Amino acid sequence: MPTNVMETWLASSHLSGANSTYIEDLYESYLEDPCSVDANWREVFNELPSVSDLPEERHSVIREQMKHAAKSPKSFVSPQGAVHNDAKQVKVLQLIGAYRNRGHEVANLDPLGLAKTETVKELDPFYHDLSGSDLDANFNVGSFAAGNETMILKDLIASLKRTYCGSLGVEYMHITDTEEKRWIQNRIESSESRPSFSNEAKQRFLEELTAAEGLERYIGSKFPGAKRFSLEGGDSFVPMLKELIRRSGEQGAEAVVIGMAHRGRLNVLVNVLGKKPTDLFNEFAGKHANIDGSSDVKYHQGFSSDFKTPKGNVHLSLAFNPSHLEIINPVVLGSVRARQERLNGIGESVLPITIHGDSAIAGQGVVQETFNMSQARAFKVSGTVRIVINNQVGFTTSNREDTRSTRYCTDIAKMVQAPIFHVNGDDPEAVMHATQIAIDFRNKFKRDVVIDLVCYRRHGHNEADEPSATQPLMYQNIKKHPTPRQIYSKQLESEGVISAEDAKTLVSNYRDALDNGECVVKEWQSMQGNSIDWTPYLKHTWQSPYEAGFQKDRLRELAESISQYPEDQKQHARVAKIYKDRLLMARGEKLCDWGFAENLAYATLLDSKYNIRLVGQDSGRGTFFHRHAVLHEQSEAGRYIPLQNISDEQGHFDVHDSVLSEEAVLAFEYGYSTSAPKGLCIWEAQFGDFANGAQVVFDQFLSSGEQKWGRMCGLTVLLPHGYEGQGPEHSSARLERYLQLCAEHNMQVCVPSTPAQVYHMLRRQVIRSMRRPLIVMSPKSLLRHPMAVSSLDELASGTFMNAIGEVDELDSKAVDRVILCSGKVYYELLDKRRDEKLNNVAIVRIEQLYPFPMDELNSILEEYAHVKDFVWCQEEPQNQGAWYCSQHNFRSVLPEGASLQYAGRAASASTAVGYMSLHVKQQKALVNQALGFDEE
């Protein structure tokens, strides 16, 4: 830009006054990355003189420097008095910025040397107009931490290459927080990405590499062809994981929870957590102890142990994981959150580590959901260390072009500005350096961090696979390529750290240890009580007795307490009316509605010192404006939560409006509930239909976790359900899917129809010592239905009824038809029957569809033993709802010779119709059909 044009530009109004701060920010962005600012601004800044690295100079003299540049762009005397070749100095700073931004693109990351590295022109000094004569000149290096304030250019370039283009490539310039960015810069630049390790540490790394390789070879020779999802090629992962545990223990961690898929899992079990090789080999041989349930394959199994660190033992938990690879991540984080809260603080006390595959982290949406949760109030765990075992070939035999659209598989992590450390798996010391920086960053800044362990897979996806059929060049190279242990052993021999004989001894000693069959992890310790005590919840059944009642006077006190808020807090008029009505309910002047009874159930549990966690997309107020557990002051936007203000000694009450996710959030809550057995943990769907997006959690964890892995869970799931004419996406919670999953008394499926029922159902879930999932078809219109009300007496002295018999005073001998039903349709049947004054039809509600309440129904139906005409009535289409999954149960309680008819909508591909008029017509028809009226 010509000088006279620049002068005019700099003198224009947008460069003065309040805009100066904007210009200063632009200039700092330019110093970090010249390409981050507009081309016009870049041209202005390119002509600026040298700028001192001192912060006060950046912010106090920037405008003066710009004006000076317009008048004399070739030279500048800094406030310190040093004369520089200003244009060249700026170019040097740009070169440093280029290496920080893009050095990782040419780093030596691929152990096989097959990855194509494109030239990055910004890393060439000539691109920045630095000629050969400049290479011997001395320049100020600004904040570059590897040298002094000034360096000869050629030495600077060599240092930049060692720092940013060696075995460790670091992406961190996308981070906007200057402190975080500077911290990483200082850590990697001060050591040029090559820290100094003691001989003892190097020997330990080699010993751990030997163990990683030794186990795989041992299993491969002893059980040839058996699936083990070998770690070979990514062997450095084992010393990496152990270093994370050691260093986290040194910094105060009491527990580490690990989630990973099957690649390398057996190696982690034996060489990190200390599972006995004998036990693993017995599993390969098909030997196992007598077990309850169905169990699971060995590379899905979890494990727990204690690990000795210099500052004390760290409890390790490897989460059980199905083959839905990334779904374990939110489960781990939920478990970590519960453990952190139990240890009185979300911080360093419990460290989550999640291990990913290169295709899975880029390809599976739950990864994005989990990253998005990482700083949300309900789900934060002070950062997760995320490790990618990047074998560069995807999950089977894919190429990068087939598995993602980004340069790196880890690019998804940039959405939360996580630093990413790409490291060559054949360089154990670079791996250890990245590991130490990663855990230190997490502990300091409480944020996620990613380590991309770039390695390879020596065998196929499993050991029966033949990868060379689709990746011939890669696997020709792999067959000739030495293992990480061999490479590092040669390195240490050349350094004089060990001898060749020492390396051989390590190999033979480890093989002898495997032959012996006992634990091979030196740091292993017997568990000393860090694990969660599930003893009180073992060996209980659905019939286990519990105290259902609650003292009525105290119930009234709690009802008054949770129905009030501070007088100086202005509430929305509708909310104020709801709370005014609740005071009347508390005083017995009005019957209890759904929201009041639900909140009162929470209050009684909190008063008994149980903790409660309630999470969902609108859980604070309730999607259907009924709960209002969180009150929002209207003038100052403050919050008041009555359930947190019952007493000084109450249980802890947490209610959170969650991120807009079903899969990751439900998985998080599952993980939380598996680590917090005493309290009540609830996930509420905004609409029951939306739980479709979390089906894998129901299928793989909630319905079968106890049978596969012995993992008990008391999670409660509220799924709003009911046909209100709102169309196919807002009607059905897919009741049939949950009933189809029911077997072996694995979970409860309930459809409560009164406020008293929901009150007792929630209390039963906590007070009863059995811990199994509770699936609730929760209502919508019943929340304010004039007939769906209960008295305080029903709450104080009642209990949850799995089935409810006829409520009107009918002559049972005159009854010739009995309708069985669940949920909202009961009130429509009842209303119609009363209107028509039918005395020959009884209506029985089944409030718990599974486990099926056979004894209760047999008792209820005794007085109708003469009836031959029974009807199951439902709102859902015939191929949905309870009809297909439960009719065998319905038939089992009918009197001998009785028949069972279906009354409901016809089978349908969709859950509901989209037009209100058609809905009303269908609803009227099914009610009439159930009551025996002819179709109108």
What tags apply to this protein structure?
seven-stranded mixed β-sheet, EC 1.2.4.2, oxoglutarate dehydrogenase (succinyl-transferring), 39% helix, 2oxoglutarate_DH_E1, disordered N terminus, 3 domains, 936 residues, ODO-1/KGD_C, 13% strand, alpha/beta, 33 helices, Rossmann fold, nine-stranded mixed β-sheet
Could you explain how this protein is built, in words?
Its cofactor is thiamine diphosphate. It is an enzyme of class 1 (oxidoreductase). Pfam families: 2-oxogl_dehyd_N, E1_dh, OxoGdeHyase_C, Transket_pyr. The protein is of the alpha/beta class. It has three domains: 199-523, Thiamin diphosphate (ThDP)-binding fold, Pyr/PP domains (Rossmann fold); 552-797, 3-Layer(aba) Sandwich (Rossmann fold), CATH 3.40.50.12470; 803-931, Rossmann fold (3-Layer(aba) Sandwich). Helix content is 39%, strand content 13%. The longest helix is centred in the first third of the chain and has 24 residues, at 199-222. The chain is elongated, with a radius of gyration of 33 Å. The relative contact order is 0.07. Residues 1-20 and 50-84 have low confidence and may be disordered.
Quick recap of the structure?
By secondary structure, the protein is an alpha/beta fold. Helices cover 39% and strands 13% of the residues. Helix 17 links the parallel strand 11 and strand 12 (449-454).
Helix- and strand-based class?
A: alpha/beta
How would you describe the shape?
elongated
Helix count?
A: 33
CATH topology of the largest domain: Rossmann fold
Count of structural domains: 3
What proportion of the residues form beta strands (DSSP E)?
A: 5-15%
The CATH superfamily of the largest domain bears the name Thiamin diphosphate (ThDP)-binding fold, Pyr/PP domains
The CATH class of the largest domain turns out to be Alpha Beta
**Order of the strands making up the biggest sheet:** 5-11-12-10-9-6-8-7-13
Radius of gyration: 33 Å
Binned, the helix content reads 25-40%
**CATH architecture type of the largest domain:** 3-Layer(aba) Sandwich
- Major beta sheet, specifics? 9 strands, mixed
The tally of strands reads: 27
